[in-house]
Amino acid sequence: MGSGVHVTIISRRQLLATTAVALIVLPHTALGSILRGALPWEPGKADPPKRVMPGPWLYFTPAEGAMVEALADRLIPPDTETPGGKDAGCAVFIDRQLAGPYGRFDGLYMGAPFQPGSKQQGPQSPVTPAQQYRLALAALDRHSRQTYADTPLVKLTITQQDEIIGNLENGSIKIEGKPGSDFFDQLLKDTQQGFFADPIYGGNKDMAAWKMIGFPGARYDYRDWIDRHNERYPHPPVGIGQHPDWSL
Prior knowledge:
Elements: H1 12-24, H2 28-35, H3 62-75, H4 90-98, H5 101-104, H6 129-147, H7 158-169, E1 174-175, E2 178-179, H8 181-196, H9 208-213
Antiparallel strand pairs: 1-2
Helix pairs in contact: 3-4, 4-8, 7-8
């Protein structure tokens, strides 16, 4: 071709023969690791998520838990067909997450310097999610009592609760001197995750959210339905902890 480049075409037989020779000349230890090494897992063993059990709050105080239930019920209001954030267990989901690794920001770099970052950079603060909730809920309680004649947030009317949530979203409510909009974003995200997560984590009680949107859940295979748009899935959803063939 004039370029001086020579292309050698290797047949499949030649490739297999070359691979076999390479294996033969490998040291004994290398062969042992390839052919006689143990599997990196034990058959029949698994590391499933721990099922959230009913019971008292693990992180929230009773007053904090009641506030989060009230807020979740305004972010996801109930209707005639689907429970709202409170009855779906969103506050329970958040409580268990805050009591675990998420609440402590386990696995994330938490050293200085701390400065405002872009949205794509994620949290840039020494305050963990668990600490953020504690500070924010205290600030919301103070705001509620100062604004509505010493009435706690859980006792406010729906309209008044919506006003507080709106002021939190637009940043006019301050938390430790900073706009409350960051906490609003965190609360909204956590509530949404609690509403749609597998029930094993404490939210989405009775798989109400999955039933609402027709999501099949943790079924092994539903490929036949992926392209069948505007067609309701006929089978009930299955959660990780409800599947008859799985044990946790």
